[in-house]
Write a structure and sequence with these properties.
The chain is built from 26 helices and 21 strands. It is of the alpha/beta class. The strands form 5 sheets. A 7-stranded parallel β-sheet has the order 3-4-2-5-6-1-7, with helices on both faces. Strands 8-13-12-9-11-10 form a 6-stranded parallel β-sheet, sandwiched between helices. Strands 14-19-15 form a 3-stranded antiparallel β-sheet. The longest helix has 23 residues.
Length: about 650
Protein backbone atom coordinates (compact mmCIF):
# COMPACT_ATOMS: atom_id res chain seq x y z
CA UNK A 1 0.00 0.00 0.00
CA UNK A 2 1.34 3.42 -0.94
CA UNK A 3 1.86 6.38 1.36
CA UNK A 4 -1.03 8.70 2.16
CA UNK A 5 -0.83 12.31 1.02
CA UNK A 6 0.00 13.40 4.58
CA UNK A 7 2.79 10.81 4.81
CA UNK A 8 4.17 12.04 1.46
CA UNK A 9 4.07 15.63 2.69
CA UNK A 10 5.89 14.67 5.89
CA UNK A 11 8.51 12.49 4.18
CA UNK A 12 9.52 14.86 1.38
CA UNK A 13 8.69 18.33 2.73
CA UNK A 14 8.84 17.78 6.48
CA UNK A 15 5.43 19.41 7.09
CA UNK A 16 2.80 17.98 9.43
CA UNK A 17 -0.16 19.58 7.66
CA UNK A 18 -1.09 21.31 4.44
CA UNK A 19 -1.62 25.02 3.97
CA UNK A 20 -5.17 26.29 3.42
CA UNK A 21 -6.82 24.75 0.29
CA UNK A 22 -3.80 22.59 -0.63
CA UNK A 23 -5.44 19.39 0.62
CA UNK A 24 -8.76 20.27 -1.06
CA UNK A 25 -6.98 20.82 -4.38
CA UNK A 26 -4.98 17.58 -4.04
CA UNK A 27 -8.09 15.52 -3.24
CA UNK A 28 -9.93 17.04 -6.20
CA UNK A 29 -7.08 16.00 -8.50
CA UNK A 30 -6.93 12.49 -7.00
CA UNK A 31 -10.66 12.15 -7.66
CA UNK A 32 -9.94 12.80 -11.35
CA UNK A 33 -11.44 16.30 -11.54
CA UNK A 34 -10.12 19.05 -13.79
CA UNK A 35 -9.11 21.69 -11.25
CA UNK A 36 -8.29 25.40 -11.25
CA UNK A 37 -6.18 26.55 -8.30
CA UNK A 38 -5.61 30.21 -7.55
CA UNK A 39 -3.02 30.52 -4.82
CA UNK A 40 -1.19 33.77 -4.07
CA UNK A 41 2.53 34.17 -4.70
CA UNK A 42 4.33 32.00 -2.18
CA UNK A 43 1.14 30.03 -1.47
CA UNK A 44 2.62 26.60 -2.22
CA UNK A 45 1.26 25.87 -5.71
CA UNK A 46 3.88 23.23 -6.60
CA UNK A 47 2.87 20.93 -3.72
CA UNK A 48 -0.64 20.78 -5.22
CA UNK A 49 0.61 18.70 -8.16
CA UNK A 50 3.76 17.17 -6.69
CA UNK A 51 1.96 15.37 -3.83
CA UNK A 52 -0.83 13.75 -5.94
CA UNK A 53 1.73 12.75 -8.58
CA UNK A 54 3.76 10.93 -5.93
CA UNK A 55 0.58 9.30 -4.56
CA UNK A 56 -0.34 7.77 -7.93
CA UNK A 57 1.31 5.41 -10.38
CA UNK A 58 2.69 7.10 -13.47
CA UNK A 59 4.21 10.42 -14.45
CA UNK A 60 3.07 14.02 -13.93
CA UNK A 61 3.55 16.23 -17.00
CA UNK A 62 4.32 19.79 -15.81
CA UNK A 63 3.95 22.52 -18.43
CA UNK A 64 5.76 25.74 -17.52
CA UNK A 65 6.71 28.79 -19.62
CA UNK A 66 9.92 29.77 -17.84
CA UNK A 67 13.17 27.85 -18.07
CA UNK A 68 14.44 29.36 -14.81
CA UNK A 69 11.26 28.25 -13.03
CA UNK A 70 11.56 24.72 -14.40
CA UNK A 71 15.21 24.43 -13.43
CA UNK A 72 14.47 25.71 -9.94
CA UNK A 73 11.70 23.16 -9.33
CA UNK A 74 13.75 20.33 -10.85
CA UNK A 75 16.67 21.14 -8.53
CA UNK A 76 14.34 21.32 -5.50
CA UNK A 77 12.92 17.88 -6.34
CA UNK A 78 16.39 16.41 -6.82
CA UNK A 79 17.40 17.67 -3.37
CA UNK A 80 14.43 15.71 -2.01
CA UNK A 81 15.64 12.57 -3.80
CA UNK A 82 12.99 12.84 -6.54
CA UNK A 83 14.63 12.85 -10.00
CA UNK A 84 12.78 14.96 -12.57
CA UNK A 85 13.99 15.74 -16.11
CA UNK A 86 13.07 18.86 -18.09
CA UNK A 87 12.76 19.69 -21.79
CA UNK A 88 13.04 23.29 -22.93
CA UNK A 89 14.32 25.59 -25.70
CA UNK A 90 18.00 25.25 -26.51
CA UNK A 91 18.28 21.47 -26.05
CA UNK A 92 19.54 19.44 -28.99
CA UNK A 93 17.51 16.70 -30.67
CA UNK A 94 19.63 13.87 -29.14
CA UNK A 95 19.30 15.44 -25.68
CA UNK A 96 15.52 15.69 -25.97
CA UNK A 97 15.26 12.13 -27.29
CA UNK A 98 17.42 10.78 -24.46
CA UNK A 99 15.33 12.67 -21.88
CA UNK A 100 12.07 11.29 -23.31
CA UNK A 101 13.51 7.76 -23.32
CA UNK A 102 14.49 8.12 -19.68
CA UNK A 103 11.06 9.54 -18.79
CA UNK A 104 9.33 6.64 -20.56
CA UNK A 105 11.43 3.83 -19.13
CA UNK A 106 13.10 5.31 -16.04
CA UNK A 107 11.91 5.71 -12.48
CA UNK A 108 10.68 9.30 -12.88
CA UNK A 109 7.58 10.89 -11.40
CA UNK A 110 7.75 14.27 -13.18
CA UNK A 111 8.60 15.60 -16.62
CA UNK A 112 8.85 19.38 -17.03
CA UNK A 113 8.29 20.76 -20.52
CA UNK A 114 7.85 24.17 -22.12
CA UNK A 115 4.52 24.59 -23.97
CA UNK A 116 6.30 24.81 -27.34
CA UNK A 117 7.76 21.31 -26.88
CA UNK A 118 4.47 19.43 -26.47
CA UNK A 119 3.62 20.08 -30.13
CA UNK A 120 6.76 18.51 -31.61
CA UNK A 121 6.65 15.24 -33.52
CA UNK A 122 9.26 13.71 -31.23
CA UNK A 123 7.29 14.49 -28.06
CA UNK A 124 4.02 13.19 -29.51
CA UNK A 125 5.82 10.02 -30.61
CA UNK A 126 6.86 9.27 -27.02
CA UNK A 127 3.66 10.53 -25.35
CA UNK A 128 1.85 7.13 -25.21
CA UNK A 129 4.85 5.57 -23.43
CA UNK A 130 5.02 8.22 -20.69
CA UNK A 131 2.13 6.80 -18.58
CA UNK A 132 0.92 10.28 -17.59
CA UNK A 133 -1.35 10.46 -14.52
CA UNK A 134 -1.73 14.25 -14.31
CA UNK A 135 -1.14 17.33 -16.46
CA UNK A 136 -0.17 20.37 -14.38
CA UNK A 137 -0.31 23.71 -16.21
CA UNK A 138 1.74 26.27 -14.29
CA UNK A 139 1.25 30.03 -14.88
CA UNK A 140 -2.09 29.07 -16.43
CA UNK A 141 -3.12 32.72 -16.99
CA UNK A 142 -0.78 32.63 -20.02
CA UNK A 143 -3.53 30.75 -21.91
CA UNK A 144 -5.90 33.72 -21.92
CA UNK A 145 -5.69 36.40 -24.60
CA UNK A 146 -7.46 38.72 -22.16
CA UNK A 147 -4.83 38.27 -19.45
CA UNK A 148 -1.62 40.22 -18.90
CA UNK A 149 0.86 37.58 -20.08
CA UNK A 150 -0.75 35.79 -23.04
CA UNK A 151 1.42 33.15 -24.74
CA UNK A 152 0.00 31.48 -27.88
CA UNK A 153 1.61 28.02 -27.33
CA UNK A 154 -0.59 27.66 -24.24
CA UNK A 155 -3.65 27.73 -26.50
CA UNK A 156 -2.61 24.38 -27.93
CA UNK A 157 -2.20 22.51 -24.62
CA UNK A 158 -5.79 21.27 -24.90
CA UNK A 159 -4.75 19.22 -27.95
CA UNK A 160 -3.13 16.79 -25.50
CA UNK A 161 -6.54 15.81 -24.16
CA UNK A 162 -7.28 13.68 -27.22
CA UNK A 163 -4.09 11.70 -26.54
CA UNK A 164 -4.68 11.48 -22.76
CA UNK A 165 -8.37 10.59 -22.23
CA UNK A 166 -9.40 10.58 -18.60
CA UNK A 167 -6.23 12.29 -17.36
CA UNK A 168 -7.13 15.28 -15.14
CA UNK A 169 -5.67 18.73 -15.75
CA UNK A 170 -4.62 21.01 -12.88
CA UNK A 171 -4.29 24.68 -13.84
CA UNK A 172 -2.34 26.85 -11.41
CA UNK A 173 -1.89 30.61 -11.23
CA UNK A 174 -1.29 33.28 -8.63
CA UNK A 175 -3.32 36.02 -10.29
CA UNK A 176 -6.31 35.89 -12.61
CA UNK A 177 -9.44 38.01 -12.84
CA UNK A 178 -12.85 36.32 -13.11
CA UNK A 179 -12.83 36.69 -16.91
CA UNK A 180 -9.38 35.12 -17.14
CA UNK A 181 -10.38 32.28 -14.79
CA UNK A 182 -13.33 31.45 -17.05
CA UNK A 183 -11.08 31.65 -20.11
CA UNK A 184 -8.54 29.23 -18.57
CA UNK A 185 -11.21 26.60 -17.91
CA UNK A 186 -12.69 27.06 -21.37
CA UNK A 187 -9.38 26.92 -23.27
CA UNK A 188 -8.22 23.82 -21.36
CA UNK A 189 -11.57 22.12 -22.10
CA UNK A 190 -12.40 21.45 -18.46
CA UNK A 191 -15.15 18.87 -17.95
CA UNK A 192 -18.46 19.44 -16.17
CA UNK A 193 -17.02 17.99 -12.94
CA UNK A 194 -14.41 20.77 -12.77
CA UNK A 195 -13.49 22.25 -9.41
CA UNK A 196 -12.23 25.77 -8.67
CA UNK A 197 -10.33 26.80 -5.57
CA UNK A 198 -9.33 30.35 -4.78
CA UNK A 199 -7.34 31.21 -1.68
CA UNK A 200 -7.92 34.61 -0.14
CA UNK A 201 -5.73 37.31 -1.60
CA UNK A 202 -5.32 38.83 1.84
CA UNK A 203 -1.77 39.04 3.18
CA UNK A 204 -2.27 40.06 6.83
CA UNK A 205 1.44 40.66 7.42
CA UNK A 206 2.06 42.74 4.27
CA UNK A 207 1.59 46.50 4.47
CA UNK A 208 0.85 48.17 1.12
CA UNK A 209 1.65 51.87 0.67
CA UNK A 210 1.70 54.39 -2.18
CA UNK A 211 3.76 57.58 -1.98
CA UNK A 212 3.50 60.43 -4.48
CA UNK A 213 6.80 62.23 -3.96
CA UNK A 214 8.94 64.93 -5.51
CA UNK A 215 12.16 62.98 -4.91
CA UNK A 216 12.00 59.21 -5.29
CA UNK A 217 15.69 58.94 -4.45
CA UNK A 218 15.22 60.51 -1.00
CA UNK A 219 12.08 58.50 -0.25
CA UNK A 220 13.77 55.23 -1.27
CA UNK A 221 16.73 55.95 1.02
CA UNK A 222 14.35 56.81 3.85
CA UNK A 223 12.43 53.53 3.41
CA UNK A 224 15.50 51.31 3.25
CA UNK A 225 17.08 53.09 6.21
CA UNK A 226 14.00 52.65 8.37
CA UNK A 227 13.14 49.09 7.31
CA UNK A 228 16.07 46.77 7.86
CA UNK A 229 16.66 43.44 6.17
CA UNK A 230 16.56 42.03 2.65
CA UNK A 231 14.73 43.90 -0.10
CA UNK A 232 13.93 44.23 -3.79
CA UNK A 233 13.62 47.46 -5.78
CA UNK A 234 11.82 47.00 -9.11
CA UNK A 235 12.67 49.39 -11.96
CA UNK A 236 11.31 49.72 -15.49
CA UNK A 237 14.60 49.87 -17.41
CA UNK A 238 18.04 48.30 -17.27
CA UNK A 239 19.63 51.73 -17.13
CA UNK A 240 17.56 52.64 -14.10
CA UNK A 241 18.64 49.49 -12.23
CA UNK A 242 22.29 50.55 -12.48
CA UNK A 243 21.53 54.16 -11.47
CA UNK A 244 19.44 53.21 -8.43
CA UNK A 245 21.97 50.55 -7.42
CA UNK A 246 24.74 53.17 -7.54
CA UNK A 247 22.62 55.54 -5.42
CA UNK A 248 22.19 52.88 -2.73
CA UNK A 249 25.86 51.91 -2.75
CA UNK A 250 26.88 55.58 -2.38
CA UNK A 251 24.71 55.69 0.73
CA UNK A 252 26.32 52.57 2.22
CA UNK A 253 23.42 50.23 1.44
CA UNK A 254 24.79 46.92 0.03
CA UNK A 255 23.06 46.55 -3.33
CA UNK A 256 23.40 44.76 -6.65
CA UNK A 257 21.51 45.04 -9.94
CA UNK A 258 19.95 42.40 -12.18
CA UNK A 259 18.42 42.44 -15.67
CA UNK A 260 18.14 40.27 -18.77
CA UNK A 261 21.15 41.93 -20.42
CA UNK A 262 23.62 40.32 -18.00
CA UNK A 263 25.34 37.05 -18.81
CA UNK A 264 23.94 33.83 -17.38
CA UNK A 265 26.85 33.54 -14.94
CA UNK A 266 26.43 37.14 -13.78
CA UNK A 267 22.72 36.65 -13.16
CA UNK A 268 23.30 33.43 -11.22
CA UNK A 269 26.10 34.94 -9.12
CA UNK A 270 24.10 38.06 -8.23
CA UNK A 271 21.01 36.05 -7.43
CA UNK A 272 22.98 33.71 -5.12
CA UNK A 273 24.65 36.67 -3.40
CA UNK A 274 21.23 38.18 -2.64
CA UNK A 275 19.66 34.89 -1.54
CA UNK A 276 22.56 34.32 0.87
CA UNK A 277 22.21 37.90 2.24
CA UNK A 278 25.66 38.93 1.02
CA UNK A 279 23.81 41.57 -1.01
CA UNK A 280 21.03 43.24 0.97
CA UNK A 281 19.04 44.94 -1.82
CA UNK A 282 18.49 43.67 -5.37
CA UNK A 283 17.67 46.45 -7.83
CA UNK A 284 16.14 44.78 -10.86
CA UNK A 285 13.74 44.67 -13.76
CA UNK A 286 10.86 42.19 -13.72
CA UNK A 287 13.30 39.62 -15.17
CA UNK A 288 14.13 38.89 -11.52
CA UNK A 289 12.04 36.97 -9.04
CA UNK A 290 10.28 34.07 -10.77
CA UNK A 291 10.89 30.82 -8.90
CA UNK A 292 12.95 32.44 -6.16
CA UNK A 293 11.92 31.14 -2.76
CA UNK A 294 13.37 33.61 -0.25
CA UNK A 295 11.14 33.93 2.78
CA UNK A 296 12.79 36.80 4.67
CA UNK A 297 12.30 39.66 2.20
CA UNK A 298 11.19 42.62 4.32
CA UNK A 299 10.66 45.24 1.62
CA UNK A 300 9.62 45.34 -2.03
CA UNK A 301 9.72 48.83 -3.54
CA UNK A 302 8.39 49.64 -6.99
CA UNK A 303 10.38 52.63 -8.21
CA UNK A 304 7.83 53.21 -10.97
CA UNK A 305 4.17 52.29 -11.35
CA UNK A 306 3.69 48.89 -13.08
CA UNK A 307 1.22 48.68 -15.94
CA UNK A 308 -1.14 46.21 -14.24
CA UNK A 309 -2.20 44.96 -10.82
CA UNK A 310 -1.36 41.37 -11.81
CA UNK A 311 2.34 42.18 -12.10
CA UNK A 312 2.28 44.41 -9.05
CA UNK A 313 0.60 41.80 -6.85
CA UNK A 314 3.01 39.04 -7.92
CA UNK A 315 6.11 41.19 -7.41
CA UNK A 316 4.97 42.84 -4.18
CA UNK A 317 4.01 39.39 -2.88
CA UNK A 318 7.66 38.35 -2.75
CA UNK A 319 7.88 40.24 0.54
CA UNK A 320 7.09 38.63 3.87
CA UNK A 321 6.64 35.00 2.88
CA UNK A 322 7.87 34.06 6.37
CA UNK A 323 4.68 35.55 7.81
CA UNK A 324 6.48 38.41 9.56
CA UNK A 325 5.68 42.09 8.94
CA UNK A 326 6.85 43.26 5.52
CA UNK A 327 6.28 46.31 3.32
CA UNK A 328 5.23 46.73 -0.30
CA UNK A 329 5.83 50.33 -1.34
CA UNK A 330 4.95 51.96 -4.64
CA UNK A 331 6.60 55.28 -5.51
CA UNK A 332 4.85 57.62 -7.92
CA UNK A 333 5.72 60.99 -9.45
CA UNK A 334 3.26 63.67 -10.52
CA UNK A 335 3.05 62.92 -14.27
CA UNK A 336 3.60 59.18 -14.11
CA UNK A 337 -0.04 58.10 -14.27
CA UNK A 338 -0.68 60.23 -17.36
CA UNK A 339 2.35 58.66 -19.01
CA UNK A 340 1.05 55.20 -18.14
CA UNK A 341 -2.29 55.92 -19.81
CA UNK A 342 -0.44 57.22 -22.86
CA UNK A 343 1.32 53.84 -23.11
CA UNK A 344 -1.78 52.18 -24.53
CA UNK A 345 -1.06 53.56 -28.00
CA UNK A 346 2.67 52.86 -27.65
CA UNK A 347 2.19 49.27 -26.51
CA UNK A 348 -0.23 48.49 -29.33
CA UNK A 349 1.19 49.80 -32.62
CA UNK A 350 -0.99 50.18 -35.69
CA UNK A 351 -1.44 47.04 -37.81
CA UNK A 352 0.52 48.54 -40.71
CA UNK A 353 3.44 49.37 -38.39
CA UNK A 354 3.54 45.75 -37.20
CA UNK A 355 3.59 44.58 -40.81
CA UNK A 356 6.53 46.88 -41.63
CA UNK A 357 8.51 45.60 -38.64
CA UNK A 358 7.79 41.97 -39.60
CA UNK A 359 9.01 42.48 -43.17
CA UNK A 360 12.11 44.31 -41.91
CA UNK A 361 12.95 41.46 -39.50
CA UNK A 362 12.56 38.83 -42.23
CA UNK A 363 14.81 40.86 -44.53
CA UNK A 364 17.33 41.39 -41.73
CA UNK A 365 17.46 37.64 -41.06
CA UNK A 366 17.51 36.93 -44.82
CA UNK A 367 14.60 34.50 -44.63
CA UNK A 368 13.11 33.63 -48.05
CA UNK A 369 9.32 33.75 -48.36
CA UNK A 370 7.67 30.40 -47.68
CA UNK A 371 10.50 29.06 -45.50
CA UNK A 372 12.11 29.40 -42.05
CA UNK A 373 9.68 27.61 -39.73
CA UNK A 374 11.49 26.31 -36.64
CA UNK A 375 14.72 28.21 -37.32
CA UNK A 376 16.39 30.21 -34.54
CA UNK A 377 18.40 33.39 -35.09
CA UNK A 378 20.58 35.64 -32.93
CA UNK A 379 18.79 38.97 -32.76
CA UNK A 380 20.13 42.25 -31.41
CA UNK A 381 17.05 44.45 -31.19
CA UNK A 382 19.07 47.68 -30.77
CA UNK A 383 21.31 46.99 -33.77
CA UNK A 384 18.29 45.98 -35.87
CA UNK A 385 16.33 49.14 -34.96
CA UNK A 386 19.31 51.32 -35.78
CA UNK A 387 20.02 49.59 -39.10
CA UNK A 388 16.41 49.97 -40.28
CA UNK A 389 15.93 53.43 -38.68
CA UNK A 390 13.01 52.21 -36.58
CA UNK A 391 11.99 53.37 -33.10
CA UNK A 392 13.17 50.69 -30.66
CA UNK A 393 9.92 50.89 -28.64
CA UNK A 394 7.88 50.35 -31.80
CA UNK A 395 10.03 47.32 -32.67
CA UNK A 396 9.74 45.90 -29.15
CA UNK A 397 5.95 46.09 -29.06
CA UNK A 398 5.54 44.98 -32.67
CA UNK A 399 7.57 41.86 -31.83
CA UNK A 400 5.30 41.26 -28.82
CA UNK A 401 2.25 41.49 -31.10
CA UNK A 402 3.83 39.03 -33.55
CA UNK A 403 4.53 36.68 -30.64
CA UNK A 404 0.93 36.80 -29.50
CA UNK A 405 -0.17 35.99 -33.03
CA UNK A 406 2.01 32.85 -32.92
CA UNK A 407 4.20 34.09 -35.80
CA UNK A 408 7.54 34.37 -33.98
CA UNK A 409 8.98 33.78 -30.53
CA UNK A 410 11.48 36.18 -28.97
CA UNK A 411 13.49 35.73 -25.79
CA UNK A 412 15.99 38.07 -24.18
CA UNK A 413 17.32 35.51 -21.71
CA UNK A 414 18.06 32.65 -24.11
CA UNK A 415 20.95 30.54 -22.87
CA UNK A 416 22.36 27.32 -24.29
CA UNK A 417 25.44 25.72 -22.76
CA UNK A 418 28.37 24.57 -24.88
CA UNK A 419 28.12 21.16 -26.56
CA UNK A 420 30.76 18.79 -27.83
CA UNK A 421 30.55 15.50 -29.77
CA UNK A 422 33.40 13.59 -31.40
CA UNK A 423 33.08 13.43 -35.17
CA UNK A 424 35.78 10.83 -35.75
CA UNK A 425 36.04 7.15 -34.80
CA UNK A 426 38.35 5.86 -32.07
CA UNK A 427 41.06 4.60 -34.42
CA UNK A 428 41.33 7.94 -36.21
CA UNK A 429 41.36 9.67 -32.85
CA UNK A 430 44.31 7.58 -31.68
CA UNK A 431 46.24 8.48 -34.85
CA UNK A 432 45.44 12.17 -34.31
CA UNK A 433 46.69 12.05 -30.70
CA UNK A 434 50.01 10.55 -31.85
CA UNK A 435 50.46 13.34 -34.39
CA UNK A 436 49.25 16.08 -32.00
CA UNK A 437 50.44 15.15 -28.48
CA UNK A 438 49.69 18.69 -27.25
CA UNK A 439 45.96 17.99 -27.71
CA UNK A 440 46.01 14.68 -25.83
CA UNK A 441 45.24 16.09 -22.32
CA UNK A 442 42.12 17.88 -23.56
CA UNK A 443 40.90 14.85 -25.53
CA UNK A 444 41.45 12.54 -22.56
CA UNK A 445 39.74 15.09 -20.29
CA UNK A 446 36.66 15.13 -22.53
CA UNK A 447 36.48 11.33 -22.72
CA UNK A 448 36.85 10.91 -18.95
CA UNK A 449 34.44 13.70 -18.00
CA UNK A 450 31.55 13.14 -20.42
CA UNK A 451 30.13 9.66 -20.88
CA UNK A 452 28.64 8.99 -24.32
CA UNK A 453 30.37 11.94 -25.96
CA UNK A 454 31.10 9.74 -28.99
CA UNK A 455 27.40 9.03 -29.54
CA UNK A 456 25.63 12.34 -28.92
CA UNK A 457 26.49 15.94 -28.03
CA UNK A 458 27.38 16.38 -24.37
CA UNK A 459 26.85 19.60 -22.44
CA UNK A 460 30.32 20.89 -21.62
CA UNK A 461 31.22 23.59 -19.13
CA UNK A 462 34.57 25.08 -20.09
CA UNK A 463 35.20 26.35 -16.55
CA UNK A 464 34.79 22.85 -15.10
CA UNK A 465 37.02 21.36 -17.78
CA UNK A 466 39.63 24.06 -17.11
CA UNK A 467 39.73 23.18 -13.41
CA UNK A 468 40.05 19.50 -14.22
CA UNK A 469 42.98 20.13 -16.57
CA UNK A 470 44.42 22.98 -14.48
CA UNK A 471 44.21 25.43 -17.37
CA UNK A 472 42.54 28.79 -17.79
CA UNK A 473 39.11 28.94 -19.41
CA UNK A 474 40.19 30.94 -22.48
CA UNK A 475 42.89 28.36 -23.30
CA UNK A 476 40.30 25.56 -23.13
CA UNK A 477 37.96 27.48 -25.45
CA UNK A 478 40.79 28.06 -27.97
CA UNK A 479 41.77 24.38 -27.89
CA UNK A 480 38.16 23.23 -28.34
CA UNK A 481 37.79 25.58 -31.31
CA UNK A 482 41.04 24.21 -32.77
CA UNK A 483 39.83 20.59 -32.46
CA UNK A 484 36.57 21.66 -34.11
CA UNK A 485 38.47 23.24 -37.03
CA UNK A 486 40.56 20.07 -37.38
CA UNK A 487 37.43 17.94 -37.74
CA UNK A 488 37.97 15.93 -34.53
CA UNK A 489 34.98 17.30 -32.61
CA UNK A 490 31.92 19.39 -33.24
CA UNK A 491 32.07 22.25 -30.74
CA UNK A 492 29.10 24.58 -30.35
CA UNK A 493 30.07 27.33 -27.90
CA UNK A 494 27.47 28.55 -25.43
CA UNK A 495 24.99 31.16 -26.57
CA UNK A 496 23.65 33.98 -24.47
CA UNK A 497 22.37 36.26 -27.20
CA UNK A 498 18.67 37.09 -27.55
CA UNK A 499 16.96 34.81 -30.03
CA UNK A 500 14.11 34.99 -32.51
CA UNK A 501 12.50 31.68 -33.40
CA UNK A 502 10.21 31.51 -36.44
CA UNK A 503 7.03 29.64 -35.51
CA UNK A 504 5.82 29.60 -39.11
CA UNK A 505 7.29 30.12 -42.56
CA UNK A 506 7.82 33.67 -43.72
CA UNK A 507 4.57 34.95 -45.14
CA UNK A 508 4.47 36.23 -48.71
CA UNK A 509 3.93 39.99 -48.89
CA UNK A 510 0.41 39.67 -50.32
CA UNK A 511 -0.49 36.97 -47.80
CA UNK A 512 0.52 38.78 -44.58
CA UNK A 513 -2.26 38.96 -42.00
CA UNK A 514 -2.91 39.02 -38.27
CA UNK A 515 -6.22 38.64 -36.44
CA UNK A 516 -7.15 42.30 -36.09
CA UNK A 517 -10.28 41.55 -34.04
CA UNK A 518 -8.35 39.69 -31.33
CA UNK A 519 -5.55 42.26 -31.47
CA UNK A 520 -7.99 45.08 -30.72
CA UNK A 521 -9.58 43.08 -27.91
CA UNK A 522 -6.15 42.58 -26.35
CA UNK A 523 -5.62 46.33 -26.62
CA UNK A 524 -8.92 46.98 -24.83
CA UNK A 525 -7.99 44.49 -22.09
CA UNK A 526 -4.64 46.20 -21.60
CA UNK A 527 -6.35 49.60 -21.34
CA UNK A 528 -8.69 48.25 -18.63
CA UNK A 529 -5.73 46.88 -16.69
CA UNK A 530 -3.96 50.25 -16.88
CA UNK A 531 -7.06 52.03 -15.58
CA UNK A 532 -7.31 49.53 -12.72
CA UNK A 533 -3.66 50.19 -11.84
CA UNK A 534 -4.02 53.97 -11.91
CA UNK A 535 -7.22 53.67 -9.87
CA UNK A 536 -5.30 51.72 -7.23
CA UNK A 537 -2.63 54.43 -7.04
CA UNK A 538 -5.15 57.27 -6.79
CA UNK A 539 -7.36 55.59 -4.18
CA UNK A 540 -6.80 57.19 -0.79
CA UNK A 541 -9.62 55.78 1.34
CA UNK A 542 -10.32 52.10 0.68
CA UNK A 543 -8.00 49.41 2.04
CA UNK A 544 -5.34 48.52 -0.54
CA UNK A 545 -5.46 44.83 0.31
CA UNK A 546 -9.23 44.82 -0.26
CA UNK A 547 -8.81 46.66 -3.58
CA UNK A 548 -6.37 44.01 -4.84
CA UNK A 549 -8.54 41.12 -3.60
CA UNK A 550 -11.67 42.50 -5.28
CA UNK A 551 -9.81 42.95 -8.56
CA UNK A 552 -9.16 39.19 -8.51
CA UNK A 553 -12.78 38.39 -7.58
CA UNK A 554 -12.02 37.70 -3.92
CA UNK A 555 -15.01 39.41 -2.31
CA UNK A 556 -14.39 38.13 1.23
CA UNK A 557 -11.35 40.27 2.08
CA UNK A 558 -11.55 42.54 5.12
CA UNK A 559 -9.59 45.79 5.68
CA UNK A 560 -6.02 44.91 6.63
CA UNK A 561 -5.54 47.71 9.15
CA UNK A 562 -1.88 48.14 8.20
CA UNK A 563 -1.81 49.69 4.71
CA UNK A 564 -1.41 53.44 4.30
CA UNK A 565 -5.13 53.98 3.67
CA UNK A 566 -6.21 51.92 6.69
CA UNK A 567 -3.77 53.77 8.92
CA UNK A 568 -4.97 57.14 7.62
CA UNK A 569 -8.58 56.10 8.11
CA UNK A 570 -7.88 55.51 11.80
CA UNK A 571 -7.11 59.21 12.14
CA UNK A 572 -10.35 61.03 12.90
CA UNK A 573 -10.82 63.94 10.56
CA UNK A 574 -11.05 67.42 12.14
CA UNK A 575 -13.18 69.83 10.14
CA UNK A 576 -11.98 73.46 9.73
CA UNK A 577 -14.85 74.62 11.94
CA UNK A 578 -13.88 72.16 14.68
CA UNK A 579 -10.21 73.13 14.41
CA UNK A 580 -10.99 76.84 14.76
CA UNK A 581 -13.27 76.24 17.77
CA UNK A 582 -10.84 73.94 19.62
CA UNK A 583 -7.67 75.94 18.90
CA UNK A 584 -9.40 79.24 19.70
CA UNK A 585 -10.55 77.99 23.09
CA UNK A 586 -7.10 76.58 23.95
CA UNK A 587 -5.25 79.78 23.02
CA UNK A 588 -7.72 81.92 24.92
CA UNK A 589 -7.78 79.64 27.94
CA UNK A 590 -4.01 79.55 28.54
CA UNK A 591 -4.00 83.34 28.91
CA UNK A 592 -6.08 82.89 32.06
CA UNK A 593 -4.04 82.05 35.20
CA UNK A 594 -6.66 79.65 36.46
CA UNK A 595 -6.69 77.57 33.27
CA UNK A 596 -5.12 74.12 33.62
CA UNK A 597 -5.19 71.08 31.41
CA UNK A 598 -7.89 69.25 33.44
CA UNK A 599 -10.14 72.31 33.11
CA UNK A 600 -9.47 72.35 29.36
CA UNK A 601 -10.68 68.78 28.97
CA UNK A 602 -13.78 69.60 30.95
CA UNK A 603 -14.55 72.64 28.82
CA UNK A 604 -13.82 70.78 25.58
CA UNK A 605 -15.83 67.66 26.45
CA UNK A 606 -18.20 68.41 23.57
CA UNK A 607 -15.39 67.36 21.21
CA UNK A 608 -13.90 63.82 20.96
CA UNK A 609 -10.59 63.61 22.81
CA UNK A 610 -8.78 62.33 19.68
CA UNK A 611 -9.76 65.52 17.84
CA UNK A 612 -8.60 67.71 20.71
CA UNK A 613 -5.26 65.92 20.81
CA UNK A 614 -4.83 66.33 17.04
CA UNK A 615 -5.31 70.10 17.44
CA UNK A 616 -2.92 70.19 20.42
CA UNK A 617 -0.30 68.23 18.44
CA UNK A 618 -0.67 70.63 15.53
CA UNK A 619 -0.30 73.73 17.75
CA UNK A 620 2.78 72.19 19.39
CA UNK A 621 4.32 71.41 15.99
CA UNK A 622 3.71 75.00 14.94
CA UNK A 623 5.32 76.15 18.24
CA UNK A 624 2.20 78.08 19.27
CA UNK A 625 1.95 76.17 22.54
CA UNK A 626 4.11 73.89 24.66
CA UNK A 627 3.43 71.41 27.49
CA UNK A 628 5.53 71.55 30.66
CA UNK A 629 6.73 68.64 32.81
CA UNK A 630 3.54 68.72 34.86
CA UNK A 631 1.44 68.39 31.71
CA UNK A 632 0.17 71.98 31.68
CA UNK A 633 -0.34 73.80 28.41
CA UNK A 634 1.60 77.08 28.09
CA UNK A 635 2.81 79.56 25.53
CA UNK A 636 6.37 78.73 24.36
CA UNK A 637 9.06 79.94 26.78
CA UNK A 638 6.51 80.56 29.50
CA UNK A 639 6.09 78.70 32.79
CA UNK A 640 2.54 78.02 33.88
CA UNK A 641 1.37 80.83 36.15
CA UNK A 642 0.04 79.73 39.48
Amino acid sequence: MGLTIHEILKEHWGFECFRPLQEDIIRSVLQGNDTLALLPTGGGKSICFQVPALANEGLCLVISPLIALMKDQVENLKRKGIPAPAIYSGMSFPEIKKTLQNAAHGNYKFLYVSPERIETTLFLEYLPALHINLVAVDEAHCISQWGYDFRPPYMRIANLRDQLPGVPVLALTASATKAVQDDICNKLQFTASQQRFQQSFERPNLSYSVFSVASKQNKLLEILTNVKGSGIVYCRSRKQTTEVCRLLQMNNIPAGFYHAGLSNDERNNRQESWINNQTRIMVCTNAFGMGIDKADVRTVVHYEVPDCLENYYQEAGRAGRDGKRAYAVLLCSSNELDNLLDQVDTRFPKEEEIRQVYIAIMNHLQVPAGSGEGNSYDFDIAAFSSAFKLNILLVTHAIKALEQEGIISYTEMFFTPSRVVFTTDKEELEDFEKQHPESEPLIKGLLRSYEGIFDYPAIVYESKLARFLQEDVETIKRELTKLNDQGIISYAAQKEKPQIILLQNRMYADNYRINNTDYRKRRDSFEKRVHAMTGYVKESKNCRSVQIAQYFNDLTAKPCGICDNCINNKVIRVTPEEFNAISGYILNAIQTPAAGTPMLWDELKAFPKQKVWQVIDYLRAEQKITIDKEGNICFPGEKKRS
